[in-house]
Amino acid sequence: MGDGCIKVRIVQMAACSSCNAAHICQASEKKEKIVDVYDFDPDAGYKEGDDVTVTASLRVGMNAVLIAFGLPFVILVGVVFVVSLFTDDEPTMALSGICALIPYYILMYISRHRFREKFSFRIEGNS
């Protein structure tokens, strides 16, 4: 906790992790992720080890998917289409499409602090 944020550890488990054979099966996964939560009640008195419910709105989720997958896909396909009008060389088309994503991801990295405000999680309370 600090800088106006709480770091929450989320344990993400595959649906089959409760199976009796999960310890020998490669399909069952268990991953830990750390998320920063800025939207919380400072008077709630959260402390390390508390069980909390972390949520994000549907709108936040849809916008995140659009920015992470939708826009890069449109850029990639658009550049490949435009380059295909000038050449029939498929490796050139593919490389141009991939290279067109470099400025996009650089801009995403530079703007990451703005996204922190738009794409934030909330703590709903102790559960």
User: Any idea what the radius of gyration is?
Assistant: 21 Å
Structural class: alpha+beta
Query: Largest beta sheet: what is the strand line-up?
Result: 1-2-4-3
Portion in strands: 15-25%
The oligomeric state is: single chain
Q: Can you tell me the residue ranges where pLDDT is under 50 for at least 5 consecutive residues?
A: none
Q: Give, in order, the helices and strands.
A: EEEHHHE
How many H/I helices?
3
Distance between the termini: 19 Å
Give the helix level as a range of percent: 40-55%
Question: Mind summarizing the main beta sheet?
Answer: 4 strands, mixed
Helix-strand layout with pairing:
Blueprint: E1 6-13, E2 30-39, E3 52-55, H1 58-86, H2 90-110, H3 112-118, E4 121-126
Parallel strand pairs: 2-4
Antiparallel strand pairs: 1-2, 3-4
Helix pairs in contact: 1-2
What is shown here, in short?
By secondary structure, this protein is of the alpha+beta class. It is built from three helices and four strands.
Q: Any key phrases for this structure?
A:
127 residues, alpha+beta, 4-stranded mixed β-sheet, 4 strands
Description:
45% of the residues lie in helices and 22% in strands. Helix 1 packs antiparallel against helix 2. It has a four-stranded mixed sheet with strand order 1-2-4-3, with no helix packed on it. The longest helix has 29 residues, at 58-86. The mean pLDDT is 82. With 127 residues, it is α+β, with helices and mostly antiparallel strands. It is flat. It has helices spanning 58-86, 90-110, 112-118; strands at residues 6-13, 30-39, 52-55, 121-126. The chain contains three helices and four strands; from the N terminus they run E-E-E-H-H-H-E.
